Amino acid sequence: MMTAGPRKPRVNPLSRIPKQQRLVMAVRGGAGVGKSFFVRSMAEAGLGRLCIFDTERKSRLLKGVGQTFDALEIEQPDELPEFIDWALSGEGREQNYGCFALDSWAAYFGAKHSETIMAVRERTGDSLAQPSAEELANDQMVLQGVLRRLCMESGKSVVIIDQIAARGKETKEDNEFGRVLPMTASGLEYFVDIMVECSLQEREGEITRVFQVVKSNSPAFEVGFELTGNVTFADFLAKLRGETGDAIPVEKSRAEVPAELPEPDITELLAPRMSIHDLLEKAEKHGFKHNDLVTASRLYHNQPNIYKLSADQIEDLDRRMSARIEKTAGQTEPVSPRPKKSNVRTIDQAQNG
User: Fold this and answer.
1) Domain boundaries, the chain
2) Helices and strands (DSSP H and E) totals, the chain
3) What is the CATH code of the structural domain delimited by 18-244?
4) How far apart (Å, rounded) are the C-alpha atoms in residues 47 and 45?
């Protein structure tokens, strides 16, 4: 005999109203342009403790690691989903992380994609074989689970670092809004609010760091918007706050709403309902006859056989009977509407002779 499992808690939809403003960014650029230093600036943006998932194992070079922020070195690609689960829903929740970063997506995606290529070549025996379009699509869907977990399910501000290997290797197309990045981003652009390209450029005779928005899902950041110099994550938050206002706070969440709806009173759900025999007994006690119930059943519910009445129909007749009883006893409560005139007696007519 199968037993019912535990009831799934009912989600309170009002708990899903955004309670805190957050910014999810992808920062792309070549080596040495300052992407990791930008990530470190999240620790000083007033969002709480920063946790960096370090797939390149370079966070040890950043000032304050292990003190003002945490950096977790990912030694094997398969560890990344486990580390993210640990931080979001495992023991890592005790660290109360307020923001996250992945440095870098290219290192993780490249390692996992290489595994796919090697598997194809081992299966085919062709040392130059490449995955089919279907295999690439399946590969991408699996790997994007990491982005979905981190960017969407965390509910925190997130920065994803993506490496541009070399200028000229990546084909870029122009359109009326700006540069459209190809799928080498591996779907990254679909999970972030804005995608920013970081580069070192000569401006007025000096080399300066430039952060330019190249893809945006946020009305606060137009494609082509730039920040230059020693740019921090707090600068982008200030821009976001200036455009969206303080209706949804950045630093601290609004008052929490219970995430689950209370369960209904089980005793009320399991309470026995009136049967037709209970209704007959009540009718006889108050001077109604069996025929009165049959007539009322036919008129109100088009059912000549009172033993086929549903529980709801029985309770409806009981309410009508109770209303008539109360009126007869001198109550002032409104009486239920009478049925159309008939040449047979109803419950409402029984006590009037």
Assistant:
1) 18-244, 273-350
2) 10, 10
3) 3.40.50.300
4) 6
- Round to the nearest angstrom and report the end-to-end CA distance of the chain: 56
Instruction: Identify the weakest region by mean pLDDT among 23-27, 91-95, 142-146.
Output: 142-146
CA distances from 87 to 92, 122, 155, 203, 272 (A): 4, 35, 12, 41, 48
CA distance 109 to 144: 9
- Using CA atoms, how far residue 92 sits from 23, 59, 152, 210, in Å, is 22, 19, 18, 35
d(CA 193, CA 215): 8
Tokens of 250: 């950045």
Q: What is the pTM of this model?
A: 0.67
Cα–Cα distance, 176 to 127 (Å, whole number): 42
- Extract the runs of DSSP E, i.e. beta strands, from 60-178: 69-73, 97-103, 157-163, 173-174
Distance CA 335, CA 340 (A): 15
Q: In what order do the strands lie in the sheet with 206-216?
A: 69-73, 49-54, 97-103, 157-163, 24-29, 194-203, 206-216, 226-228
Three-state secondary structure call for residue 50? strand
Whole-number Cα distances in Å, 252 to 149, 249, 292:
22, 6, 67
CA 241 to chain centre: 23
pLDDT digits (tens, 9 = 90+) for 60-114: 999 999 999 999 999 998 899 999 999 999 999 999 999 999 998 988 888 888 8
Closest listed residue to residue 79, CA positions, set 162, 152, 146: 146
Three-state SS for 16? Answer: helix
The tokens of 84 are what? 């993210």
Tell me the CB-side half-sphere exposure of residue 312, using CA atoms within 13 A.
1
pLDDT at 333 over 70: no
Instruction: Kindly provide the residue ranges of all beta strands, DSSP E only, lying in the chain, ordered along the sequence.
Output: 24-29, 49-54, 69-73, 97-103, 157-163, 173-174, 179-180, 194-203, 206-216, 226-228
